[in-house]
């Protein structure tokens, strides 16, 4: 029988700390109830969703494929995460596909080895990056990077070039977040590169990156005490810092501004330049309406979401 492996992994949004996390600063990220599902079996030619392909347009898949036996595969994908939207769709694809390939070839599918292979794929494609998205997608729920934590919450650790990340579980109290998608698809790599160049040549930009790290540490305290007012203020401040780094845009600012009257705070999430924003609110319907009125696509998300799931059929 031709074994088929089905794996799925969630997208994410970032409460605080994107971009700065690339330089080893703290970040907090949360899995969302939108998943990327892949199904993989051995085939006679490589194919994706019924089309023969060598995956040249899918560098994450190609990278992971190269780590495994060179047999052709039949891959089917189904994603509920808009692509290039700041919601971690490529990380979710990489996590699900890595796990499916490992399972297909009888390798260990433990979350750490999947998170590592998926991060390596992201790092290779973006030429930089942090393990934030791939860790959140693999482990689910809430994840902190380089934040103080108990030994019990430790998940895994990794170093690339000059930076290292200590990844831990974080408890996110029940809070209501609304995502607003601008509809503008922006790949992550060029935005990460823009911040890298700015930070490398400008002390002011490097101070802003450090300040995002400090804001995130304050946010960890706000989460511990379930202080939504403080957390919301920190999110809005984080948005301003990201704007100074040059990764916001008019459409994101419009959706953030529209949400603020009904929110504790709001910010862009992910790489920026388009993609999505997120608001912390106890009036999700009003925020959703305000986002839609400004041309964004709102969706209310549930947190506490399971990470990677793998099954054989
Ligand atoms: O836009 P996304 O979902 O790819 O998130 C990117 C997050 C960054 O911090 C900008 C990059 C990274 O690798 O952490």
Describe this protein with a few key phrases.
single chain, 313 residues, alpha+beta, nine-stranded mixed β-sheet, four-stranded antiparallel β-sheet, 9 helices, 13 strands, globular, binds (3R)-3-hydroxy-3-methyl-5-(phosphonooxy)pentanoic acid
Order of helices and strands: EEEEHEHHHEEEEHHHHEEHEE
Low-confidence stretches: none
The shape, in one word, is globular
Bound molecules: (3R)-3-hydroxy-3-methyl-5-(phosphonooxy)pentanoic acid
Number of helical elements: 9
- Structural class per helix/strand content? alpha+beta
Name the beta content range: 25-35%
Number of strands: 13
Q: Span from first to last CA?
A: 10 Å
Radius of gyration: 19 Å
Helix content: 25-40%
The largest pleated sheet is described as: 9 strands, mixed
Structural features, described:
- This protein has 313 residues and is an alpha+beta fold.
- 38% of the residues lie in helices and 26% in strands.
- The strands form 2 sheets. Strands 1, 2, 3, 4, 5, 6, 7, 8 and 13 form a 9-stranded mixed beta sheet that branches. A 4-stranded antiparallel beta sheet has the order 10-11-9-12.
- A hairpin with a 2-residue loop joins strand 7 and strand 8.
- It is globular, with a radius of gyration of 19 Å.
- The chain binds (3R)-3-hydroxy-3-methyl-5-(phosphonooxy)pentanoic acid.
- (3R)-3-hydroxy-3-methyl-5-(phosphonooxy)pentanoic acid binds next to helix 4 and helix 5.
């Amino acid at each position: 029988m031709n074994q088929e492996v089905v794996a799925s992994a969630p997208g994410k949004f970032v409460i605080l700390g994107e971009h700065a996390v690339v330089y080893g600063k703290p970040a907090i990220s949360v899995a969302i109830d939108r998943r990327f599902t892949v199904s993989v079996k051995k085939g006679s030619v490589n194919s994706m969703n019924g089309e023969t392909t060598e995956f040249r347009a899918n560098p994450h898949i190609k990278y992971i494929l190269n780590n495994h036996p060179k047999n052709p595969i039949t891959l089917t994908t189904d994603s509920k995460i808009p692509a290039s939207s700041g919601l971690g769709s490529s990380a979710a694809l990489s996590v699900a596909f890595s796990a499916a390939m490992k399972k297909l070839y009888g390798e260990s599918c433990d979350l750490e080895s999947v998170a590592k292979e998926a991060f390596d794929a992201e790092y290779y494609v973006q030429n930089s990056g942090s393990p934030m998205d791939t860790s959140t997608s693999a482990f689910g729920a809430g994840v902190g990077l380089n934040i103080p934590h108990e030994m019990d919450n430790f998940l895994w650790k990794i170093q690339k070039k000059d930076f290292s990340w200590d990844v831990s579980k974080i408890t996110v109290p029940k809070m209501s977040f609304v995502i607003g998608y601008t509809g503008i698809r922006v790949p992550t790599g060029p935005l990460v590169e823009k911040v890298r160049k700015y930070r490398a040549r400008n002390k002011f930009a490097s101070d802003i990156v450090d300040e995002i790290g400090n804001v995130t540490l304050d946010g960890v305290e706000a989460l511990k005490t379930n202080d939504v007012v403080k957390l919301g203020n920190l999110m809005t401040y984080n948005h301003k810092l990201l704007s100074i780094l040059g990764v916001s845009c008019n459409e994101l600012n419009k959706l953030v501004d529209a949400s603020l009257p009904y929110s504790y705070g709001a910010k862009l999430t992910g790489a920026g330049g388009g993609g999505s924003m997120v608001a912390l609110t106890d009036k999700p319907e009003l925020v959703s309406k305000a986002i839609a009125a400004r041309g964004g696509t709102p969706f209310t998300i549930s947190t506490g979401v399971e990470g990677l799931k793998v099954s054989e059929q």
